[in-house]
Amino acid sequence: MDNLEYKVVTSNTPAFGNPQKLQQVLAEEAQAGWELVELIDSHKIRVARNKSERANDAGRSIDPYRINVGIHPVAYFGLAAVLTIVVIYVIIQVAALSVR
């Protein structure tokens, strides 16, 4: 029986394409017993740990089950929405000026 548990950690930016950022995240995950299994792409990694590590989860300094690193997804997509609205507004204003 497999005594490992797995999780995929994601980033809204291509953080895992940066070797220093990847090593930083892996060092943080190692605090909870997680080890790199697969670098899926610059946005996703798969990690695994022995299920016996769960016994120490209450005293950890990080959330052992976090699945996102970097900017929070809500903030990321909120910022993208605001920037999109600004760009559309500018396009409409420029189009309106060229009609006159």
Can you give a write-up of this model?
Strands 2-3-1-4 form a four-stranded mixed β-sheet, with helices on one face. The protein has two helices and four strands; from the N terminus they run βαβββα. The chain has two domains: 1-69; 72-100. With 100 residues, it is an alpha+beta fold. The longest helix is centred in the last third of the chain and has 27 residues, at 73-99. 39% of the residues lie in helices and 24% in strands.
Number of strands: 4
Number of domains: 2
SS strand fraction: 15-25%
The Rg value, from CA coordinates, equals 20 Å
Write down the secondary-structure element order: EHEEEH
Characterize the biggest β-sheet.
4 strands, mixed
Gross morphology is elongated
Number of alpha- plus pi-helical segments: 2
Low-confidence regions: none
Instruction: Give the strand order of the largest sheet, numbering strands 1, 2, ... along the chain.
Output: 2-3-1-4
- Ends distance: 74 Å
Q: Helix content range of the residues, please?
A: 25-40%
Structure classification: alpha+beta
Mean of pLDDT: 92
Features:
100 residues, 2 helices, elongated
Q: What does the secondary structure layout of this molecule look like, with pairings?
A:
Blueprint: E1 4-11, H1 19-30, E2 35-41, E3 44-50, E4 68-69, H2 73-99
Write a short abstract of this structure.
The protein is α+β, with helices and mostly antiparallel strands and 100 residues long. The protein contains 2 helices and 4 strands. The protein has helices at 19-30, 73-99, and strands at residues 4-11, 35-41, 44-50, 68-69.
